[in-house]
Design a protein that fits this description.
The protein is an alpha+beta fold. It has ten helices and 24 strands. Strands 4, 6, 10, 11, 12, 21 and 22 form a seven-stranded antiparallel β-sheet that branches. Strand 11 and strand 12 form a beta hairpin.
């Protein structure tokens, strides 16, 4: 039969005609953008981008955790460091681009989860769906013929079996109807569904991710992280002026700093000595400290690399360690102008260490000393010293001497670990009139030009600690465990629908059809339908238990 002449499909197709897209307008484009942002594909993409964006934080030192490393990076990479700083590579986790991905992921998850939650609540309140007319087409199917039982008895037995398996059931009766191949017989059916917890677990997982994002955001806003390096016998007071570096959250209040002190009593490092293939490898580090919270008694405690100290709501982590040579400088008349233990930064695994001593007053001119400390000294073929073992076996100290302007009079902050020698004259060291000053413990050596003397009094160990406070870390743990639990629920609980259709045959027997349909992959579906058939037979007394 031909179509009417005015039917749209009867008109010739103009292949050259341009397809006209509808004009969305501002509201239309906003709706389109919102749908794209709140799609699961976008959420997964943003999650991947967040993971990629976090990578630079592990490649270059961060001001929030290693400010000294950042300073050293600027010294070692004078050309590339300013460029990286322009892109906030030293503040990755607080950078504008990382925060943008973080906030977009947060919005995407919220926009994705809320509609799914509404749909899931409606599904929980709804009855199981109507039984399909042709069960044999479903992926899992079983059939049995029963004699001596009425259709109502079979259906009631099926209903009880399904309810015992924690299905939610509903009865649907179907009248005969249809024609030809589509003709259906009258039947009484029961529809059952279970596995709602699968979607519940999925939603718990996504809400927990949102909770983690919120908790991390609040923790970063109200918490803080500070670093302090101090040597044996020295104490640290938890106050702003006592930190070497301090990174507060945006909403941090200095009045919230809990008052306590930590004194380093002893630091012990254990190195491998038996295995010839791993001589000098670190085995264990232990910082023995005395802590005292204001108004309480002092306590002896220990800090290890993977065992932080918990005190007054803060976590104290052992970040690093090194040596602090004790040096005394005297003027030509023998007056002490400087005496202290100076932290030297380790430069290699054997703790060859670099340190700086600045002497702005007390001598005829300003003097700067760049020192190298070798815990177990050895000399290479060129005569240059290096440390061959990280422990104190044969310690040696060398000092390069500079005189001139230290740059401390301009009021510009200077790193205590670096010496700007641009406006200074090198008096001792390589390519200088005098070779570097060399010391064993107890040695006293004269400074060039009769400036005075330097004495190497001994060596102490220092530790670098990070004091960290995150008021939401407990919530982060709760949300992380919730996410894991929700993920396990969504993975191991199948969403499944089952139907039993009972029809009466002309010979007085009853035919029961069992069928199942899974939402998603369910390799156990056929086994579940077969098990339903077996349980129904046992419930009707057709087989032995």
């Amino acid at each position: 039969m031909s179509r009417p002449s005015d039917h749209i499909d009867s008109k010739p197709v103009d292949v050259d005609a341009k397809i006209m897209n509808p004009n969305l307008g501002v509201v239309g484009w906003l709706r389109w953008f919102w749908r794209q942002l709140t799609s699961m594909r976008t959420a997964l993409l943003l999650l991947l981008l967040l993971a990629i964006a976090a990578v630079p934080g592990s490649l270059v030192p961060q001001r929030s955790s290693d400010p000294n490393g950042v300073s050293q990076y600027f010294v070692d990479h004078k050309d590339t460091a300013p460029i990286l700083d322009q892109f906030q590579m030293f503040d990755v986790y607080s950078s504008a681009w990382f925060s943008a991905i973080y906030l977009l992921l947060f919005v995407s998850l919220i926009g994705c989860v809320l509609p799914r939650t509404k749909h899931h609540i409606e599904a929980l309140r709804a009855q199981p769906p109507v039984t399909p007319a042709n069960l044999v087409r479903l992926p899992a199917y079983a059939k049995l013929t029963i004699s001596g039982k009425s259709a109502e008895e079979v259906l009631e037995a099926a209903r009880k079996v399904l309810k015992s398996d924690r299905y939610r059931v509903a009865r649907y009766d179907r009248a005969a109807g249809g024609k030809g191949k589509l003709k259906t017989e009258a039947a009484i059916t029961v529809s059952a569904e279970r596995g709602y917890m699968r979607e519940t677990g999925n939603l718990i997982f996504h809400f927990a991710l949102v909770g983690v994002l919120i908790a991390v955001g609040f923790g970063g806003g109200f918490g803080f992280a500070g670093q302090r390096a101090f040597y044996e016998g020295q104490a640290f007071t938890n106050s702003l002026i006592a930190f070497d570096s301090f990174n507060p959250g945006r909403f941090f209040n200095s009045a919230s700093l809990p008052p306590y002190t930590i004194q380093l009593d002893k630091f012990t490092a254990v190195y491998e000595e038996q295995n010839s293939n791993a001589i000098g490898q670190p085995v264990d580090f232990t910082a023995e400290v005395t802590t005292q919270i204001k108004g309480e008694e002092p306590q002896k405690q220990t800090i290890k690399v993977n065992e932080p100290l918990r005190i007054a709501g803060t976590d104290v982590y052992l970040l690093g360690h090194g040596y602090a040579p004790t040096v005394t400088v005297r003027d030509p008349e023998g007056n002490v102008v400087f005496t202290d233990s100076v932290n030297f930064l380790p430069q290699d695994m054997n703790l060859t260490s670099l340190g700086v001593i600045k002497l702005p007053d007390g001598l005829a001119e300003q003097v700067g000393l760049i020192g190298f400390f070798y815990p177990t000294v050895s000399a290479g073929h060129s005569g240059a010293f290096f440390s061959m073992y990280p422990d104190l076996i044969d310690p040696r100290l060398t000092l390069d001497v500079y005189s001139g302007d230290l740059g401390v009079d301009e009021g510009i902050p200077r790193s205590v670990y670096a010496l700007d020698t641009e406006d200074m004259t090198k008096l001792a060291g390589r390519k200088a009139p005098q070779k570097s000053l060399e010391f064993k413990i107890g040695d006293t050596v004269e400074l060039p030009n009769g400036l005075g003397t330097v004495t190497f009094d001994g060596v102490k160990r220092f530790v670098s600690l990070e004091i960290h406070r995150d008021p939401t870390q407990g919530w982060v743990l709760v949300f992380a465990l919730s996410a894991l639990g929700g993920l396990l629920i969504s993975l191991f609980i199948p969403r499944r629908r089952m139907w039993v259709s009972v029809t009466e045959n002309s010979d007085g027997s009853v035919t029961a059809e069992c069928a199942g349909l899974a939402r998603g992959d369910d390799p156990t579906l056929e086994g579940a339908v077969a098990a339903l058939k077996d349980k129904l037979e046992r419930a009707l007394g057709l087989t032995r238990d």
